[in-house]
Here is the input.
Amino acid sequence: DGGITQSPKYLFRKEGQNVTLSCEQNLNHDAMYWYRQDPGQGLRLIYYSQIVNDFQKGDIAEGYSVSREKKESFPLTVTSAQKNPTAFYLCASSMKTGSTGELFFGEGSRLTVL
Amino acid sequence: DAKTTQPTSMDCAEGRAANLPCNHSTISGNEYVYWYRQIHSQGPQYIIHGLKNNETNEMASLIITEDRKSSTLILPHATLRDTAVYYCIVRVDTNFGNEKLTFGTGTRLTIIP
Here is the structure.
């Protein structure tokens, strides 16, 4: 079935370690996004990419990095520079042309830094 | 994009219609109203969107007032699986407007057995 796959679902890391979260989609979507969600809060945009080999900072990009080498993949690295990395991370994608604006989300990755 | 105001929480009895309000008094003429929902610890799910006409799909109905300053999402026969946080968002419908979507804190809807 078509969709977005995030892995791992749960991740524990020690403070100071870099962590990479995977996001893969087989929907043939051009645009991909990474959001962060803290308990009881809405979603905040970290990075987004409208096309392969191009990406833009969102509202809270500091301490994060991304790459978009393939259309299907948009991995997010949470670096040691991110002051408070414990959160629920959501990846999403959407079509480029003829878009209704619908975002398709993955199931999320919950990162806990010990 | 215009801001939206939603109640923090609502309850609804199972089998009844759930009516979720949203105020967007500063909406512009070319901004659409979108609704998503997020079931606990999952990614948000698109429900419906509209510009000025009322819309209906298999999940819900969207009623937009004539002045477009508010809207109501209607789940016609709520089930326990409809318990979720519901987000009302307004945005300009462009090819790449999704990066402007703002998911606030939404309305936490609880369906009561």
About this structure: Chain B has a mean pLDDT of 91. Residues 19 and 74 of chain B are 5 Å apart (CA to CA). Chain B touches chain A through 24 residues (CB under 8 Å). The beta strands of chain B are 9-13, 18-23, 31-38, 45-50, 55-56, 61-64, 70-75, 84-92, 107-112.
